[in-house]
Amino acid sequence: MSSNLKSLLGRFRALDSVELAAVVAQDGLLIEATARPGVDIDAICAVASNGLAMAEALGREIDKGQTMQTLLEYQQGLVLLEPISEDAMFLLMANTREELGQVRFLVAIHRHDLVNALNAI
C-alpha cells in the first residue's frame, strides 16, 4: 500500500481521540488504515460501508443529492464517513465527540491529499 496514504492517515491518528483512520472500498474491504491496538479494523470497515450506503439511499429518497459526509455521534464517540472517490471512502472513529470540529477541519484540509494518495495506488 502507499506509504503516502498511511502517512496521511497518521495525521488523523495524531489526535488523542482518534482510534481509527482508514480508507475503505465501497464494498467494505480495507485499503489502508492506522488504528489503536485492539481495534477490529476489518469488522468496522465492513459495517461502516453499510452506513454510507444507508446515507446515500436516504439522500436519493429525499432528493438531496450525493452524500458529502456522514457523521454518526454516539454517547462515547463518533464515526465519520466521507466518500473520496466512486470506489472508496474515508472512515474515522473517535472515542469522544469533543474534537469534532478539529476532526472535520482535518478532513476538509486533507481530502484532496487523500484522493491523490488513493489514486497513486
Topology:
Elements: H1 3-13, E1 18-25, E2 30-35, H2 41-61, E3 70-74, E4 77-83, E5 88-94, H3 100-119
Antiparallel strand pairs: 1-2, 1-5, 3-4, 4-5
Helix pairs in contact: 1-3
Description:
43% of the residues lie in helices and 27% in strands. The chain is α+β, with helices and mostly antiparallel strands and 121 residues long. The chain has one domain: Beta-Lactamase. A 5-stranded antiparallel sheet has the order 2-1-5-4-3, with helices on both faces. A hairpin with a 4-residue loop joins strand 4 and strand 5. Helix 1 runs antiparallel to helix 3. The protein starts with a helix and ends with a helix.
Q: What gyration radius follows from the Cα positions, in whole Å?
A: 13 Å
Label the overall shape: globular
Please state the second-level CATH architecture.
2-Layer Sandwich
Distance between the amino and carboxyl termini: 7 Å
Number of strands: 5
Compute the average pLDDT.
93
State the fourth-level CATH superfamily: Dynein light chain 2a, cytoplasmic
Count up the helices.
Answer: 3
SS class? alpha+beta
pLDDT under 50 segments (min length 5)? none
CATH class equals Alpha Beta
- Give the CATH topology: Beta-Lactamase
